[in-house]
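cache lookup: miss for this entity combination. No prior model stored, computing from scratch. Input as submitted by user K.M.:
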Amino acid sequence: MLIILSGPSGVGKGTVREELFKDESLNLAYSISMTTRKPRPAEKDGIDYFFVEEDEFKKKIDEDKLLEWAQFVGNYYGTPKDYVDQLLDEGKNVVLEIEVQGALQVMKKCPYATTIFIVPPSMEELERRIRGRRTEDEEIVQQRLAKARKEIATKGEYKYVVENDDILEAKDKIAKIIREHHVDQG
Ligand SMILES: Nc1nc2c(ncn2[C@@H]2O[C@H](COP(=O)(O)OP(=O)(O)O)[C@@H](O)[C@H]2O)c(=O)[nH]1
Ligand SMILES: Nc1ncnc2c1ncn2[C@@H]1O[C@H](COP(=O)(O)OP(=O)(O)O)[C@@H](O)[C@H]1O
């Protein structure tokens, strides 16, 4: 089963996901995306993302190897199709942590997907988190915050909206959604 996790940059998607993956009973697998963004200091190729150059990314688009793809603040991001299919064949609940344009593409192709949008308690808190992470320079932070406002405006497209105020509470809410839709049925 497919689970789409979206939300603005810095809202805590990665942090909440890490908590979710500690719960083995959820039977989750993470779909590793491909991106042209440069790796952050702690990120590893093949774990956080497959980091590629733009020409390689465009080749994947041409070869129809991506389930979805989008441009986000100057970089390309996409979901390799084969890997997702392999994980689904293994019976996993596959988590796509992707932005809104990509999520809309997957919703069309897979209307049964469980779609979750994570919102911050406030825009001020979102700004604190994105700055606190210290991974982007000022210009990019500004662009990501502007993007965040537009993204939050699309939250109605998702089946569930979960606020990430307390990390563990957000994790519990999402785990409950997944359990109700996937684990208990199967
Ligand atoms: N459409 C799409 N978006 C992705 C993919 N992988 C990551 N993203 C999204 O791209 C945006 C930027 O990701 P990133 O640069 O890692 O920043 P972060 O979300 O602040 O950690 C986030 O909204 C991610 O969820 C993908 O394969 N496809
Ligand atoms: N509930 C929370 N309360 C306070 N800080 C949080 C919370 N969730 C995440 N953070 C912090 O916010 C920053 C951005 O989180 P991250 O998981 O990288 O976001 P995303 O993956 O959505 O871009 C990180 O420094 C993280 O530790």
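stored under new cache key. Residues 9-10, 13-14, 33, 37, 68, 70, 72, 77-79, 97-99, 102 surround guanosine-5'-diphosphate (ligand 1) (CB under 6 Å).
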